[in-house]
Amino acid sequence: MGVYKMKKRYYEFLNVLVTDCNPIKNLDFYKAGLVELFFISLVFIVSIFLRGEMHHLSMIVMNFTIVHTLILFLAFLLFQKFFDIKALQLIPTSSYLFLHFELLFWGSIFFGENHLAFFMIFIILSLSYQLINLLYQMVIVSKLRYFEQKQKINILQIHAIVLCCLSAGVAVITRLFMLSGLYMIIALVGLSIALTPLYLLGYAQVFTGWRNQVPEKW
């Protein structure tokens, strides 16, 4: 597949998946902030029941996320005055990306002394998923030209939907049968990996050059 064809298909699937063509606005900062606060609350509640090194590492993650949230708030204040600066427009989407890796590290600490090894495994799984996701969308998008818009979106995101359902299923089964909490952590990591490509589409709202490159008849 040539570079030109790859770029064309990349623009095509962006044209399908990026349904919000508006520039970054305050609402994007609000949503990123709410996700940050939810994660901080989750880490704080779970940390109450942890002991020793796991508790210490969990509190480090929480403190790091609090600093991350304060930076997001500062960027939001600056955005009110300098909303045309692209660096500030990138903050909400970048916030999700940083939070994803924070969650991967937090999830790894429940695996004891081997937490760094599991953290690396989670990162490799996440990066592999993002790459497979991108290649799948670039290969399949040209075959969806005459499908309805909703069908296009569902087909392009089918693997994310399946992974989200599997993660939710693992979480429900873990709760119903009182299984090890590690399964709940794995479900949370899987959900985060599945949702990351959707959050990354926020970058397409900042860098909009692709909109002038989409096919006239799509």
UniProtKB/TrEMBL annotation:
The keyword Repeat appears for this protein: no
Arranged from A to Z, the UniProt key words for this protein are: Membrane, Transmembrane, Transmembrane helix
Does this UniProt record's set of keywords contain Transmembrane?
A: yes
Chain segments annotated as transmembrane? 32-50, 56-78, 90-111, 117-136, 156-176, 182-201
Q: What is this protein called?
A: Lantibiotic ABC transporter permease
List the source organism: Streptococcus sanguinis
